[in-house]
Amino acid sequence: MVSNLSLEDRFEGCFLGLAIGDALGYPTEFLSFPEIQQRFGPEGILDLRGNPALHSDDTQLSMAMAKALLEAGGHEIEDFLAVFTRELVAWFRSPENDRSPGNTTIRACQNLETGAPWDRSGIPQSKGCGANIRVAPVGLYFFDQPSRLRLFSRASALVTHAHPTALVAAEVTAFCVSWAVQGVLPTEYLDRIAVLEKSSLDSWEPRFGEIWERAQFNSPIEYLREGWNQLLAGLRKVPRAVSENPPDICSVIGGGWVAEEALACALTCVLISPGDYSAAVRKGANNSGDSDSIASITGAISGALLGSDAIPKDWKKRVESRNRILELAKQFTIERENAR
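User: That's the sequence. What structure does it adopt?
Assistant: Structure tokens below.
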């Protein structure tokens, strides 16, 4: 266990960690590994670019998620979904939505804007990583409430990504963040995920409707089992990737464009450098895959585990949206401290 850190330190570390990881990986997204080396040097990108260092839509959507949790108070799922869908549509129409947003999220926002309810707006065929790149705030807010963490993480995914692997990957990503907040060492995560499968398969919220039918499954458990099968297949590559520690982790895991690979890549980065935030996010940013998303998930977990002080001060000063991010972390801390 990583102890002696306050909740405020961990929350701030997670919020800043995800945004900085995102900003570090944003310039290398869509580049092959040789192209990254050619542009940034043999070791790849090592420092944030610009002042402010721009983040992608990953951080924008994470902040939208955090705002929805705060406004809804984390009580009723319907209240949260009403606010979150409103935030999604506002983001969709914002002039700041110019950071290479994912096609699935855009299509789902178009559905919402034309009046589709949240349980019909998500795309059943998409298991892109757009749901698990924004779910870290759920892992923070419900770090000690596993049933509510599962409910809210799944609901937040289904609004845009209704494929079972996207749903399960968002759920498990949120759990990894919650374990990091509790100081659980990353070496335990894969075993904990394996144990998590049974309770996850046994849980289905009737308010989610019959999304499993839209995804062409015969029952909720069949739907969830397919998601788990694909997620675990991706995570089985992690030990090899950690052992070999290749220059480009995507050469072992896959590009991270889909949900199970994004989480597997991020866990690989954290496991290779469990006590070094900078090294972990640099590993996440320097690869041939979805580098900003991989580095963002890596940064969320590592930042929650190691705390804000583990992140270089210069990076914390230069990341875009710094003040908004710090305010969200502060509000999260106040709400959770008052709830204790």
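The chain has a mean pLDDT of 96.
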